[in-house]
Amino acid sequence: MAKNRIKYVCSNCGHEELRWMGKCPSCDSWNSFTEELVEEKKSSKKKYSGEPSFTKLNAEAHQSEERIKTNIEEFDRVLGGGLMPGSIVLLGGDPGIGKSTLVMQAAAKIDGDVLYITGEESVNQINLRAKRLKIHSTRISVMTETDLDIILNAIEKNAPDVVIVDSIQTTYKTDFNNAPGTITQIRECTAELMQLAKKKNSAIIIVGHVTKEGAIAGPKVLEHIVDTVLQFEGEKSYSYRILRAQKNRFGSTNEIGIFEMHDDGLKEVKNPSEIFLSEREKEITGSVVTSSMEGTRPILLEVQALVTPSSYGNPQRVATGFDYRRLSILLAVLEKRANMRLSAQNVFLNIAGGIRIDEPAVDLAVCCAIASNFSNKFAQNDMVVIGEVGLGGEVRSVSNIEKRIQEAAKLGFKKVVIPANNYKAAKVKSSTEIIPIDNILTALKTIIK
Ligand SMILES: Nc1ncnc2c1ncn2[C@@H]1O[C@H](COP(=O)(O)OP(=O)(O)O)[C@@H](O)[C@H]1O
Ligand SMILES: [Mg+2]
Q: Which of 94, 412, 96 has its CA nearest to residue 274?
């Protein structure tokens, strides 16, 4: 007879312990352990002695790589060209960010039959959303179901091209005594969907909620099982939403898709630079435009800095959309190499538009924005500043310099500051004026007037 015992599972990473712990020893998250029942199975110690079967590795003998296009350009690019039949995509994101909206809009444009399974909304609610999003596709079948066995049966019988499961947290298997949304349920349900996807050659999109508290299972547990992990993110106060690939067996993880949320759904943002710069105030100190590569696309962004004297002993350093530690390093470089007395100043840094960047190529712009506001002088406003800053105050070369310059020229910028080494390595031709710079001091003299 099966004996039930209790184990504790970290809802963030799936680590298991026999007793409850405050902090997960595997992923260091706090208060993430939840109690789950384990049903022990008698293990059979029989050895397998059948004939093993091999095939020779053959690069030519692969199945066609035909993808199912969602026909939403931003979505397809992040997927690496579209959905791969027989694969599973996990779409994660905070509640309310727009996951259901995105999959619904994709469902409407996919060339193929789509089965939309939801455990979160009623058919009426789905129809209302479809009306709001102006979707009139006849190829979408809707099913409100949370029982995995019924879902698997529906996929098995209909073999749709694309299946959407919204969301994995509401789906459960009756064989397990654990509640829907627990690690065991999520892992088992995903594994079974995966097997069926491979068998039926359907592409399955699984929607998963992620909360910072880790109350509901984070995607870490599923990352190993699924083929692609997409994260849909954005600041609640902005209408921009960014789709990123965190893992992709069929494409690059560098690409991002940018959307804007409207009343009638998500709109693709095809010229992000224009939008991110649209509210830029030109006559303002502490504002510098730079270029960040997001996948294969350069995006122009405004870096804003505010430097104010600190009346307390400990000056504040706040970075929005930029790595805090990187900011500390750049402040130290400015202090030491450019002789700026920033240790008694509060420094606030913001990347306008609610986007997050973590590319060293924006270092120089960050330094210039801080120096500009600190010295109360304007940085040249018809200029894009590109370069990584080293600890010695040297300006280091960056990747994809030509694409970045092209984007700056396209948006009408007259001058582009680039690392001197990039200038030497690639004889860049452009209608805009190129200013090569090799260290932070010359940069500040050239850019800040
Ligand atoms: N009736 C509505 N009118 C306008 N916008 C709405 C409406 N309902 C939802 N939204 C927008 O859609 C978002 C929720 O999208 P949804 O796809 O349901 O999120 P998720 O599935 O990620 O929880 C809301 O944050 C809101 O911006
Ligand atoms: Mg939803």
A: 412
